[in-house]
Specification:
By secondary structure, the chain is of the alpha/beta class. It is 50% helix and 18% strand. The chain starts with 5 loop residues before the first strand and ends with a helix.
């Protein structure tokens, strides 16, 4: 499954974001990493992305604070929140702030790919665009 989405992975744990970037790359997803909310905002101000994978718990700027700023500056960007700690209150807050999805870590790669693809499709639909032909044909073959 190759989504064609350009993904920004934001997590304060270097090992997690590096491993996830490699796994997504093998799955055909172009991914870049950022180690903090501030890094993510700087990256988003200079480069275009389709989907952001954002950790909820980070030092300095929490994932929720980063989500609010990301959606303010990039309302069409889809943000999937990742956390190791399930909380109904956090899930509700994520939805209020415009987050696309809320997943528990560790999340199986196949499940994450399905969510990335769905988020990318939603972004494209909102922009009135279609998925690139090569990615759509690759998915149809699987």
């Amino acid at each position: 499954m190759s989504s064609g989405a350009k993904v920004l992975i934001v997590d304060d744990e270097e090992r997690f974001r590096t491993t996830l970037r490699k796994l997504l790359s093998v799955a055909g997803v172009e991914a870049v990493t950022a180690g903090s909310g501030q890094e993510a905002l700087a990256e988003l101000s200079s480069n275009a992305y389709d989907v952001v994978l954002l950790d909820v718990k980070m030092p300095q700027m929490s994932g929720l604070e980063a989500l609010a700023k990301i959606k303010k500056d990039n309302p069409g960007l889809e943000v999937i929140m990742l956390t190791g700690h399930a909380s109904v209150d956090v899930a509700v807050e994520i939805m209020k702030l415009g987050g696309y999805e809320y997943l528990l870590k560790p999340c199986p790669l196949e499940d994450l790919m399905v969510k990335i693809d769905a988020a990318y499709e939603r972004k494209l639909a909102r922009e009135g665009k279609r998925r690139p032909v090569a990615a759509a044909q690759s998915d149809a073959a699987e």
